[in-house]
Amino acid sequence: MKAAALQMTSSPSVPANLRQARALLEQAARAGAELAALPEYFSGMGLHERDKLACAETFGDGPVQQFLAQAARELRLWIVGGTLPLAAGTPDRVRNSSLVFAPDGRCVARYDKMHLFCFENGAEQFDEARTIEPGDQPVRFTLDAADGRRWQVGLSVCYDLRFAELYREHARAGCDLLLVPSAFTHTTGQAHWEVLLRARAIENLAFVLAPAQGGTHDNGRRTWGHSMAVDPWGQVLAQRDAGGPGMVLAELDGARLDTARRQLPALEHRVL
């Protein structure tokens, strides 16, 4: 199965971001991808952290969700809508939600980011808990590929990558592919992005697909980019080295997955 990780440099303009996303999704479809994943905050990176509150949609309705459903139907793609803000339990918070749409346009999975990023180094300060309400449940879905293989896919978002227990839970449930739409900062991405993605692939003997924000945004934030696909042995199959919008395309070989798990049955040797 071909899968595409789509990299963006999202702005505060939702319509402009959706046009950029549509162009990348069309590129993925032309390249033969069955699955295309957009990055975290693909529909909007505001000038201020509270800007996301004004863009929040009710789950099941809204222009961004309509966009994703329509693109999935028209392009016959499985689409992971990175994340978008969905209404939470209180008006001063949103859920940072990753939605999955099947090729018939149905939303088949919703994952609300569980771990909220917090970082301060003197020059940069981030605290997602000020505007985001965390989720509390791991989420997986089943993808039936054109070749007849059934893939179990585990969802996660950005900062989740630092919490290995989430991915082990996905592995226990039989996941073959782990998705990590992200907006890693330049500082933390430069230090940790690749090593964490490869570690999650190796320890869970699973493919990892990580679409990312990359570049300098209107609010001055720099994101690391380097959207990536990694195989179950930890080999980087494809990576985008440049910033800015683009696509990383990789072949996820089910036979390679089966061989790796047969040769090194580490998942069967767990004692905790």
Automatic annotation (TrEMBL):
Keywords: Acyltransferase, Hydrolase, Transferase. GO terms for molecular function: acyltransferase activity; hydrolase activity, acting on carbon-nitrogen (but not peptide) bonds, in linear amides. It comes from the Bacteria. It holds the Pfam family CN_hydrolase. PROSITE patterns: CN_HYDROLASE. Residues 1-254 form the CN hydrolase domain. SUPFAM superfamilies: Carbon-nitrogen hydrolase. The keyword Transferase applies. PANTHER family: DEAMINATED GLUTATHIONE AMIDASE (PTHR23088:SF27), NITRILASE-RELATED (PTHR23088). This is Acyltransferase. It comes from Melaminivora suipulveris.
